[in-house]
Amino acid sequence: MNMKLGIVIFPSKKLQDFANSYRKRYDPHYALVPPHITLKSPFDAEEGDLKSLTSQLEEIAIKHQPFSFHLSKVKTFHPLNNVIYLKVDPNETLTALNEDLHEDSIIGGKPEYGFVPHLTIGQKLSNLEHDDVYNSLQMMDVDHEETVDRFHLLYQLENGSWTVYETFLLGKG
């Protein structure tokens, strides 16, 4: 059976609540997946691939220690697409995790875009909406730091929502 998978970090409940206060207005995916930092964008896999994939992910998780990340401002991917997001400042561990998850031996292929760690708060907005929302939100003072000690392999259900298949703790053998 073919499945759609993705690999993400879920931030703290406090940060999820903050992101959701905007997402429920500006992100049509609000009900489908909690706020997250994408480490590997959605990719297709066979159910038979899961066993080897999860053991590869365990090895990657053990290699990396828990780390902090910092959110610093509201940004947009416009004109590439109308996504408004909280910018995660560049971070060695995040970059290394992303690179490990895109090794040739791991299913899912190469990323479509360069890695820009972020937390989406708005997407699929018309150009007019995007400009309005972005102009009001970019003035917002964003300064938030927290620690991450795990990442999650998600799979997509038939209704389009995402659920956790397995969780991988960083630095834990």
TrEMBL record:
Q: Where is this motif: HXTX 2?
A: 118-121
Active site positions, chain numbering: 36 (proton donor), 118 (proton acceptor)
The UniProt keywords, alphabetically, are: Hydrolase
Motif segment (HXTX 1): 36-39
Q: Which InterPro entries match?
A: 2H_phosphoesterase_YjcG-like, Cyclic_Pdiesterase, YjcG
Stated EC number for the protein is: 3.1.-.-
Enumerate the GO terms in the molecular function aspect.
Answer: hydrolase activity, acting on ester bonds
Task: Please state which protein family the record places this protein in.
Answer: Belongs to the 2H phosphoesterase superfamily. YjcG family.
- Which PANTHER family does the protein's record reference? PHOSPHOESTERASE SAOUHSC_00951-RELATED, PHOSPHOESTERASE YJCG-RELATED
| Official protein name in the record | Putative phosphoesterase A8F95_08835
**From which source organism is this entry?**
Pseudobacillus wudalianchiensis
